[in-house]
């Protein structure tokens, strides 16, 4: 007999629109409540219009992240649900603040109201999700709102799947049974067996016969059919799927920057780079004067490096060394107590202030604020034969700062192991690239500071 409790589902697409409406309502209600708390009832139309425009902009931007924050979170942890909300809200507020600054209208908005609204709206959205999460956990503990899973396969992959589901009782997933491809038909035909909502193929990629048998048996099934192949041993996790001329192709080495990701990252770079350059322009002017007065030669040092898709780009830095000529156009990395580095240059390199001109590279489109640090062309030629996957670093734009740098892998790479560690972190960034990871790297850069003992 089929348990009627399992019919209670909250996975309909309608619920996505309900969640979107909930967030829009919470953002608006928070803004109105903070407005009334600070100003009471104000009849001045221009003032109301100005604040309403900010709220509308925030709502529109949050709804623009709907695929990320309003999708089904079944099978994911609570933190994984709250994290995108936090980052999306922070990103929306940063864009609004940048717009107010650039239009010189920031003084027209109460900072107290803005801060109260920012915190109360975020708290409201997170508390609503906590309440929903707690309600769903209670429902699932009573046998409601769960999905049944039938596993096809009985090897290490199926064991991995069973363990993962067992360790996540909050997911609302229940494993019915574990069957072989040959016994699948008999299981489904048994009237006493509950029919699954999901069928997971936990078979090796080389088991062509087993996969074909399973898919043939399931050809009339309305269950969600998914495959959990042994990607782990092949190290193919986090790679996407591309469709070309009707073929589904697994991206083993392809740029993850495309479509909406490209638009979001470009917008992020342009907005933040413009804002940062406005803020640091006085500091850059002082550094330029200091470089000119303390050492003969140009203020800026330019070097050819590889950019997106391996194209050569010209990278700008404040000159930190005395003018010299490398033998045979070699590029020698700076070392501790390097005699070529000027006293001012040592300070600039130690604090990373020599890299400030690279924000102009960002505005030119040749670099990004976050990405793998570009290496000299000569270093690429040397290490590409020594470090597996080295040239995959160029599948994205190089960045002013990256995942490797915030994890301590910056400065001189005097051993092969150091370069391997840096490349490993760069590849992790490429395989997991997202707005959230970019914002995390930016935050770590700010909170950890720009100095590092390896920078010299």
Q: What's the Cα radius of gyration?
A: 27 Å
| Largest sheet: spatial strand order | 2-1-3-4
Low-confidence stretches: 1-12
Output the helix-strand order: HHHHHEHEHEHEHEEHEEHHEHEHHH
Strand content range:
5-15%
Number of strands: 10
User: What is the global morphology?
Assistant: flat
Number of helices: 16
Q: Into which percent range does the helicity of residues fall? A: 40-55%
Structural class: alpha/beta
Question: Into how many domains do the coordinates divide?
Answer: 3
Mean pLDDT: 80
Distance between the termini: 72 Å
Largest sheet: 4 strands, parallel
What does this structure look like?
With 456 residues, the chain is α/β, with parallel strands linked by helices. It folds into 3 domains: 4-141, no CATH class; 147-234, Response regulator (Rossmann fold), CATH 3.40.50.2300; 259-448, no CATH class. Helix content is 50%, strand content 11%. The chain has 16 helices and 10 strands. The protein has helices at 14-39, 45-64, 66-69, 78-102, 111-141, 156-166, 184-189, 208-217, 231-234, 259-294, 343-351, 358-364, 377-383, 403-406, 416-431, 435-448, and strands at residues 147-152, 173-179, 198-201, 224-227, 241-244, 247-250, 300-306, 312-318, 368-370, 399-401. The strands form 4 sheets. It has a 4-stranded parallel beta sheet with strand order 2-1-3-4, with helices on one face. Strands 5-6 form a two-stranded antiparallel sheet. It has a two-stranded antiparallel ribbon with strand order 7-8. Helix 1 (14-39) packs antiparallel against helix 5 (111-141). The protein is flat, with a radius of gyration of 27 Å. The chain starts with 13 loop residues before the first helix and ends in an 8-residue tail after the last helix. The model is unreliable at 1-12 (pLDDT under 50).
